[in-house]
Structures are given as structure tokens and as C-alpha cells.
Amino acid sequence: MRYPEQYLQFIEKFNEGEYYECHDLLEEIWMEDKSDKFLQGLLQLAVGLYHRECGNIKGARWMFGNARKYLARYAPSRWGLDIDQIILYIQSCEQALPDADSIPYAKAKAMAFPSLRLLIDQS
């Protein structure tokens, strides 16, 4: 399958930890079909990670919950991604969040947090 260039760039930026840039890359193709909850779920995962990095724990928790809910519809895989693996990752992110609505930026940046490398299955 041939994937949109923005999707491939999203994967690359996600793997580099550039979560803010991820949003801009997928938003354009998601806006063409807002009923596509797969793309919305990926967007919300990236936004959740960005919120977490900035210390907005409440926002991260909200985005992770939405991302998990939207992506679960597409398990076990979609567009070459292992959705089951992504769901497990989101759950580990939710568990790693501190019990607070927000934390200082420096504390958020220094905090150990689960990571995930997205890989497109070419088979």
C-alpha cells in the first residue's frame, strides 16, 4: 500500500520525539475525512505526549484516553501499524502519569517515561 507522504513524515517525527510537529503533519489529511478515527487517534496520541512533556498531565491523560478509544477500533493493525502494540503503549503511558493535573516543566522533562518506535509493516 502507498501511504500519504504526511503519514510517513508523521511516523518519522513521532520516532524522533517531535510530537508537536506530528500534529501538523496528520491534521491536514485528517481534515479531509474527520470520520477517520484512526488518524484522529494517532493525532491525539502525539498531542498527549506533547502535553506530558510540557507538564500538562490532565491534558495528557485526556488525550491518551481518547487515542486509546479511537485506535482500539482498528486493532489488530491499520496502515501497517501494530495497533495492539500502540494500545499497550498508551496504557503504559497512562500508568506512568503522576497523580496530579500538572507538574513543572523541568520535572516533566526529567521524568522517565515509556517510549515507542512506530514501524510500518511492509508485508
Automatic annotation (TrEMBL):
InterPro entries per record: DUF309, TTHA0068_sf
Gene3D superfamilies linked: TTHA0068-like
Signal sequence, start to end: none
Superkingdom of the source species: Bacteria
Record-given protein name: DUF309 domain-containing protein
Organism of provenance: Brevibacillus brevis (Bacillus brevis)
